[in-house]
Amino acid sequence: MKNIDNGAIAKDKEIINGGEITKVVLAYSGGLDTSVIIPWLKENYQNCQVIAVCGDVGQGDELDIVYEKALKSGAGKCYIVDLKKEFVKDFVWPVIKAGSKYEGKYLLGTSVARPLIAKALVDVAKKEGAQYICHGATGKGNDQVRFEVSIAALSPDTKIIAPWREWDIKSREDAIDYAKDHGIEVPVTKKRPYSMDRNVLHLSHEGGDLENPEKEPIDDLCLICTRPEEAPDQAEYVVIDFEKGQPVAINGQKFDEPLALLEKANEIGAKHGIGILDMVENRLVGMKSRGIYETPGGTLLMEAHQLLESLTLDRDTASFKSHIAIKYAQLLYDGLWYTPLKQALDAFIDSTQETCTGQIKMKLYKGNCIPAGIKSPYSLYSEEIATFGEDDVYDQKDAEGFIHLFSLPLKTNARMRAKSGLEI
Predict the structure, then answer these.
(1) Is residue 219 marked as binding?
(2) Confidence band (pLDDT; 50, 70, 90) for 421?
């Protein structure tokens, strides 16, 4: 067993505003990293009181043992803050309306939760009079930026402790050894050392054998979604209703609470293997990483929303919004939720959703969302105009003048080049 020197960076002499470090708020999940951080903080920061804060964004039964585990690991207090409803209504829905996917694929399941958790950390720190907030994000990852940028925006004078940038623990295997030395039970083993993040929108898997992009994920990796090979052999139709860009009903069942609707979408999507993504992405800190994401309900809703917009947005607005979606995804991925630009983009996106009301029918089959019908009272589609059959609405001869004017700059350029002896 590797020996970890945990006293190498002791902070016994550190002073904050003329006083000792007495309280540190820790972003706590009950997982490997944050579990070992509690005793490490006490050993290295003047035996400070560790106040564990777990933001419940839909981790499910993972939270059943969190409270007792935090106290058993050495925390003086543990807050479990229910953020699920706020998460879906104020954080997930804006991503759906924006149509944002990082690098065209990732539905931002981890990224979008971090600003809300950071807000909960700041709220508890203010309540407890703690001037330090600690997180367990690795120094190689994106979450360290997301947490710290959000905390800076909400509480600029709060200081940060980031153990992965300080301690002598170099790997998850080291952390497992440290946990065993301190009698802490952890939910990972050296045989299944994945780093996982779960909320009501998604479940991500990183690390372990996934770090080799040549390797296919193990068959039992997915914990939410059915493998497409094992999904039902019979397709299922699902109908989703939207009002002003927000999903409000599934298969005729109205949901007043967004959380309940997303949970229903998760149930349906997971059954058919919808939303399993294996991608190599570009991290904010400059490296590439591979992740496996399970986002069943989010994928279903995102696909349906984009289909509805194909009916309700004009060409120029749809084109410009697609560019906005890319920028919006970049902001969220980089942790820039609490910024003036993000707020301004929200205003633009909301304006495009005024007519995004209607009903989408999808056919789900072995990992695929197949369009099966769209209708909206604000549809810009006209069958009378678009038909290839006979009509009395559109004079096809009008296209001749349009094409002449549309191609005029090209003709002018070609004549100039020919006159000048240049190759056309």
Answers:
(1) no
(2) very high
